[in-house]
Amino acid sequence: MLSHLLMSLSLPLFIGLLFSLVFEALLSPRPAPLWQRPIAANVTHLGSWLLLFGLFTLLLQRPWFAVVFVLSLQLVVVQSSNTKSNTLNEPFICHDFEYFWDAILHPRLYVPFFGIGLAIAASSAGAIAIGSFLYLEPSLLSQSGAGLFLQSTIFLAGLGSLLVAIGVRALPAMSLDPVKDIHRVGLHASLWAYGVALMRSTPPTPEASPFLKVSQQALPSHAASNTLPNVVLVQSESFFDPRPWCPDVASTLLQHFDATCQEAIEKGELSVPAWGANTVRTECAVLTGLAPHRWGPRQFNPYRTLSRHPLPSVASAFRAQGYRTVCVHPYPATFYMRDKVIPQLGFDTFIDIAAFTSQDKHGQYIGDQAVARKVGRLLKDDDNRPLFVFVITMENHGPLHLEAPTQARLADTLPNATWPLPGHLRELAVYLHHLGEADQMLANVKTALNASTRPGLLGWYGDHVPILPDAYGHFMPPTGSTPYMIWSTQPTPPDQMPAEPLPQEIAANELGVLLFKRVFGRDISNDVIKAEPEPQEQE
């Protein structure tokens, strides 16, 4: 009976281990060969397979079923990693496991990138496989007896756990560059290493925030409160200027953006910590003033940390100075746990999709024009306090291929393109149409700020470049940075304008600090507030 049990376990165990290595080679970018990896990485891979095989054999009682089940899960991770690499320039990391649950809650945001047909086929094949194995493969528990079966499977799982612990402990330190790390140590070892690093990391402390002191007390000021400007900061979904990157784009596409840049008091390129998605990485950097490296392994989804460990932000800094603070995001508040994070960051009010109607949609999501109208109504609702509004738009969020381009819109976006559009221009045309809507939103928010009794300041930036793999493959990818600018209803007098104002390149975590400085005319830092001296009384 023991020999039969060992034979029943050993063959599927080794066949499964071999295929796990073959499946890992399907990754793009591909990890280094086994002989080029650290020994600890290979030990971790072996331990991972023994652990999973032992646990699922214990659960399913059928070793071949366990092999197919575990390998199927690995294929899902491999396909997800390849899709993520193709669209976001970043492979799968342990933080991404929570997105499988998000894909169930928000399938439109995730499943189309994986492939709707592939998802349906995989689900169907999985259901058939489960039924077939349960019917065809006999239970090892009934054949070998409970004692031997439990001892064998628990031994395999325990041995796997021990090898994983030894391997992970001996792994070289991760660089937190997912592309480099997965190439160096492989999929299994990188997942374990990132997970362990995440558990061992500590969140940033409030003392690390440049907004700590200005959030705790109001800055001294001799200016009357009614002279403080209303401030609107817009994080425009996937906003960047595609004209330098793609010569086929209409030169007049962003006419309001161009005009605002001419009048802007600050403008330039924003170095953002995201490509194609992962909006909260840029959002967190702008709001908290902390660069990604300050978060360590938590940088890949900092809002999970912020939901439990609040930090001072540009919003709490404005609120300490007497501002009413509002966040507008036309999507469910629970996504990325913003319902918990946004209040923790110092916002008095969070307006989500519940404040909009289906008539406000433009394309797949709530349109930028509807969001601009909401901001306009907020600016009219004067309660004698200055207003700070942070806007997170959604209209230009992917997947763009779920929308079909129309020939009538090409005159404003791709005037020289042929119809029907070639494949590399289809998603681009959809993106450019919504980019034009963002440009009109910019004009409408400026109009609302000008109509207010208070002065107004507008900050505008893109969270990341869009997901356009076909277009990038044809035209070459852009740099990945996005434009930013700060515009005021009170233009700088000509005699105070610099001779040749030049655009500046700044990091995303510097933008909120720069905006605060523009409002109050003061610089802030971690250690000191450089405030203007109070005016002396005249005799």
Description:
- This protein is an alpha/beta fold.
- Helix content is 50%, strand content 10%.
- It is built from 21 helices and 12 strands.
- It has helices at residues 2-24, 39-60, 63-88, 98-105, 107-114, 116-136, 140-144, 146-170, 178-185, 187-200, 212-216, 255-263, 279-288, 302-306, 314-320, 338-344, 368-380, 410-413, 423-451, 469-475, 508-520, and strands spanning 230-236, 266-271, 324-328, 349-351, 361-362, 365-366, 387-392, 456-462, 482-488, 504-507, 523-524, 529-530.
- The strands form 3 sheets. The protein has an 8-stranded mixed beta sheet with strand order 4-3-7-1-8-9-2-10, sandwiched between helices.
- Helix 16 (338-344) links the parallel strand 3 (324-328) and strand 4 (349-351).
- Helix 3 (63-88) packs antiparallel against helix 6, helix 4 packs across helix 5 (107-114) and helix 17 runs parallel beside helix 19.
- The protein starts with a helix and ends in a 9-residue tail after the last strand.
List keywords for this structure.
single chain, 539 residues, alpha/beta, 8-stranded mixed sheet, two-stranded antiparallel ribbon, disordered C terminus
Overall mean confidence score, pLDDT: 89
Strand order of the largest sheet: 4-3-7-1-8-9-2-10
Largest β-sheet summary: 8 strands, mixed
| Count, helices | 21
Distance between the termini: 106 Å
Radius of gyration: 27 Å
Give the helix level as a range of percent.
40-55%
Total DSSP E strands: 12
* Beta-strand content: 5-15%
Structural class: alpha/beta
Poorly predicted sequence stretches spanning 5 or more consecutive residues: 526-539
Please tell me what the overall shape is: elongated
